[in-house]
Amino acid sequence: MVDPFALGRADAETARFPQARPRRLRRMPALRDMMRETSLRPADFVYPVFVTPGRDARIPIGPMPGQAQVSVDNLVREGEEAASLGIRALLLFGLPPRKDALGTGAYAPDGIVQEAVAALKSALPGLVVITDVCLCEYTDHGHCGTLRADGSIANDETLDLLARTAVSHAEAGADVVAPSAMMDGQVAALRSALDAGGWTDVAVMAYASKMASAFYGPFRAAADSAPQSGDRKSHQMDGANAREAMRELRQDAAEGADILMVKPALAYLDIIARARGAFDLPIAAYNVSGEYAMLRAAAANGWLDERAAMLETLTSIKRAGADVIITYFAKDAARLLREEA
Ligand code: PBG
């Protein structure tokens, strides 16, 4: 059968200069605006925040200028500000008062994230609250799971603790839980524990394609979650592997993920594009701490136009196929979009 759309497209593309002059459509701002294929809106962004114990605390994060660890009272202010800018969701990371080998702070009913979720949901019930589900911020060894005697991560034992963590977040009021530990089977473990607890409406945003990346460096300072020995290469993926990334995405979709995440974003735009083509689930991309830090550092030196570079970066992630962009630029970008509108 002849595809009339494909025919039309081919015809248009046969025109050559001087008949074809692409610059005709770039001549004036209104035309350029009309022809724009990808646009950003504040509702595309998820704003990640680090929550720390105490009151009225706001501790700047050195390698992430403009970001801070905030106490729960200030977190509510962050939520209010984000919501007033049109941002719909926050992603919470916690800094527990104490760490131990089993990461008990991650699933303590009165843990820092549980407290933060409850406070946010009571002050701002309409804001979407997403929680990161991992043990690395809560273990004294800094690994994403519990360790065996030989120092390797005990995958299946860790699944139980991740599931407990997710259920405790749901009990506190979380709308979406986001497992980031890269343990095999983590999405299924969370889904079945949530369902067994009656939390059938809590969604799972899976860190599905998560690479072992140098671009998490600033985050590990912010979340105090650097491994005390070794690295994360036994569970996070080799950034060279695109086909393996597709297998991870497929497994998480099969395990019941509601949203599939690709992380980091910028060095992996090809994975985002492939994920977009292969799945009809919503795709999220994490514009990670190192991507944020690079741009801020260059701008602070006067080497880049910060506003333009920020919007160009976020637009590239959306254009590649992300529906949701997790970014520390969320508030700044939302403000810029408002000014432009
Ligand atoms: C927790 C987690 C990490 C990030 C998100 N969740 C760190 C890691 O895997 O080491 C990184 C986010 C960022 O760099 O902005 N496991």
Overview of the structural elements:
By secondary structure, this protein is an alpha/beta fold. It has a single domain, classed as TIM Barrel, CATH 3.20.20. Helix content is 41%, strand content 15%. An 8-stranded parallel β-barrel has the order 1-4-5-6-7-8-9-10, surrounded by 9 helices. Helix 4 (112-123) links the parallel strand 4 (89-94) and strand 5 (128-133). Helix 5 (155-172) crosses helix 6 and helix 8 (242-254) packs across helix 9 (269-278). The N and C termini lie far apart (44 Å). The model has no long low-confidence stretch (mean pLDDT 96). Ligand PBG binds next to helix 7.
What is the structural class? alpha/beta
Strand content: 5-15%
What characterizes the major β-sheet?
8 strands, parallel, barrel
Rg from alpha-carbon coordinates:
21 Å
Envelope shape = globular
Poorly predicted ranges: none
The first-level CATH class is given as Alpha Beta
Percentage of residues assigned to helices: 40-55%
By CATH, the superfamily comes out as Aldolase class I
Number of domains: 1
- Summarize the helix and strand pattern as letters: HHEEEHEHEHEHEHHEHEHHEH
User: What's the β-strand tally?
Assistant: 10
What distinguishing features does this structure have?
globular, eight-stranded parallel beta barrel, 12 helices, TIM Barrel, binds ligand PBG, 341 residues, alpha/beta
Give the helices and strands, then pairings:
Layout: H1 4-14, H2 29-35, E1 45-51, E2 58-60, E3 68-70, H3 72-84, E4 89-94, H4 112-123, E5 128-133, H5 155-172, E6 176-179, H6 186-196, E7 203-210, H7 217-222, H8 242-254, E8 259-263, H9 269-278, E9 283-287, H10 289-300, H11 306-320, E10 324-327, H12 330-340
Parallel strand pairs: 1-3, 1-4, 1-10, 4-5, 5-6, 6-7, 7-8, 8-9, 9-10
Antiparallel strand pairs: 2-3
Helix pairs in contact: 3-4, 4-5, 5-6, 8-9, 9-11
Bound molecules: ligand PBG.
